[in-house]
């Protein structure tokens, strides 16, 4: 049995990462958590899973994600301690760290919703013009926005890798052939171009080898960034589908 060795030649920085608060809001929506009563243990475990996946994929994880991870771990540890509130008045006056986090999340959510509203107003304003300025008529199409968030992509990758671990093939002697991210991008584009309908995200990962899974994922992200493919989903947190052609093509 032959196997190919995928080579990660560079790290990918995805602009869609908006910060740890954005990830926390994504998890709160996904887990249907009350933002005013955040379960420290559950949200911490989920957050660390995402950060760990980013690091495995060698994505550029900003230090602010790690600072938030440390904050959540401390918050989780505090929630596991015995409740001494009735014995120590000074302990009663200590602020619950979840309250500070809730305030930050609510404030961030307001700014994010305001940004979306401003973008909608900008798009409405743009419709008032019959055509763009003359010097833009021949401009190349820029990178199109993702139909799904980077956190949706990471969540789909997590689920896919867990399923792969449950069905690991028998070990065998193999011959390794090095393949770069660029080569994987070409093979993915070839497969997607020939497909008559969108392909399920998980179906693009045929191997059980970690290196191959990671490089395939990086190739998909890079193709999205270059506006060569589009990833969609029918509803929030539903299965992802990939098709050739960017949103603006």
TrEMBL record:
One annotated GO biological process: DNA replication
InterPro entries, per database record: ScpA, ScpA-like_C
Entry keyword Ribonucleoprotein: no
Subcellular localization(s) per the UniProt record: Cytoplasm
Record's keyword terms, sorted: Cell cycle, Cell division, Chromosome partition, Cytoplasm
Source organism, top-level taxon: Bacteria
Chain coiled-coil ranges: none
GO cellular component: cytoplasm
Pfam families: SMC_ScpA
Annotated function: Participates in chromosomal partition during cell division. May act via the formation of a condensin-like complex containing Smc and ScpB that pull DNA away from mid-cell into both cell halves.
Family: Belongs to the ScpA family.
Assembly and interaction partners: Component of a cohesin-like complex composed of ScpA, ScpB and the Smc homodimer, in which ScpA and ScpB bind to the head domain of Smc. The presence of the three proteins is required for the association of the complex with DNA.
Protein name as catalogued: Segregation and condensation protein A
């Amino acid at each position: 049995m032959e196997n190919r060795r995928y080579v990660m030649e560079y790290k990918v920085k995805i602009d869609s990462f908006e910060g740890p608060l954005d990830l926390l809001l994504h998890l709160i929506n996904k887990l249907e958590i009350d933002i005013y009563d955040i379960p420290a243990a559950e949200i911490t475990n989920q957050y660390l899973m995402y950060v760990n996946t980013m690091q495995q994929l060698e994505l550029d994880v900003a230090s602010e994600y790690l600072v938030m991870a440390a904050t959540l771990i401390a918050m989780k540890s505090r929630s596991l301690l015995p409740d001494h509130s009735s014995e120590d008045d000074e302990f009663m006056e200590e602020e619950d760290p979840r309250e500070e986090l809730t305030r930050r999340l609510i404030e961030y959510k307001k700014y994010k919703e305001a940004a979306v509203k401003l973008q909608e107003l900008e798009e409405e304003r743009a419709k008032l013009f019959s055509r763009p300025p003359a010097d833009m008529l021949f401009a190349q199409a820029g990178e199109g926005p993702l139909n799904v968030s980077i956190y949706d992509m990471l969540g789909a990758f997590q689920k896919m890798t867990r399923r792969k671990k449950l069905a690991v093939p028998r070990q065998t002697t193999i011959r390794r052939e090095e393949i770069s991210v660029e080569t994987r991008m070409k093979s993915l584009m070839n497969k997607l171009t020939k497909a008559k309908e969108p392909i399920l995200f998980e179906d693009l990962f045929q191997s059980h080898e970690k290196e191959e899974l990671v490089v395939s994922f990086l190739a998909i992200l890079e193709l999205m960034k270059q506006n060569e493919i589009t990833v969609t989903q029918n509803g929030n947190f539903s299965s992802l589908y990939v098709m050739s052609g960017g949103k603006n093509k």
